[in-house]
Amino acid sequence: MESLTSKVLTFLQENPEGVSGQNICDACGVSRTAIWKVIRRLQEEGYEIEAVRNKGYRLLRAPEILGEEQIRSYLHSKWAGQTIVWEEVTGSTNTDAKALSEKGAADGTLVCAGSQEGGRGRMGRVWQSPPGTTISMTLLLKKEELPAEKASTLTLVMAVAVAKAIAACIPENMQEKLQIKWPNDIVLNGRKICGILTEMTMEEFLIRDIVIGVGINVLQESFPEDIADMASSLYLETGLRISKAKLIALVCEEFEKAYETFVQTMDLSGLKEYYETHMAGIGGKVRVLDPKEPYEGISRGIKESGDLLVEDGDGNIREVYAGEVSVRGLYGYV
User: Fold this and answer.
1) pTM of the predicted protein model
2) Half-sphere exposure of 220 (CA within 13 A, CB side)
3) CATH class of the domain at 68-277
């Protein structure tokens, strides 16, 4: 249920030139006094709101506050994120989403946290989420129409969604530097800014739920020396302090669109062109870190199933399933 505060924030954000108090009252069905109280509360939280007699209210600056009300004020999806569970600190939003699923949480439930203490990536890697700097979010899916063998492909569907959401928040001249590193990373200027982790729970050979965790580096100003050459943040790469609440809402909206495209064919045929156009390393040399047989080759894009296509030294096209395999650029991260 959208709160009055979220509704007022939406009006202010969608009307940068200002909006009359009466218009807000009429749309929300409340009194001018109720709106005035919400405005005062927002000002106390750090929102700079100009109030001009007979003209209305204008949002001059919004503080970097992240919570359910802020996310909902930007959200325009149909089902993704319509239920929001917010935690200031948690172990893992994926773990929380699974627990909520067991208790009957709805399809599309969004779990977000100010910081994670036990975030993780593929193959058990640690994903660090310092307070106030990152987006830590998980979408819970309960899709009866989805065959179990298709679940892993949703990582690539989410990668498309995240890339489109980030592109909407950065300058046009930087968008060509935004890429998807197969299968689950988003990179900007060759450095990782986002990781995606999809996990599935089965019951009697049927999918009980799928959780898709997304971690985005938004406001970090530095990274430890051992990862500084391959990790970065949106702030470091663009100089912009992008609203985390807005970006979370955009990810939900773009995933909803991408998922609806995906289920039409149950593969990536409708998303493949976008994915490959933005794919890091395509046409370049890569090293496939297969524990059974590491090898080098040339990245030739992806199959509609989501598998990576790599041309080996003998000219054969080999299909790489994400599983426990990593792929790196021959001379660097991408």
Assistant:
1) 0.84
2) 20
3) alpha beta
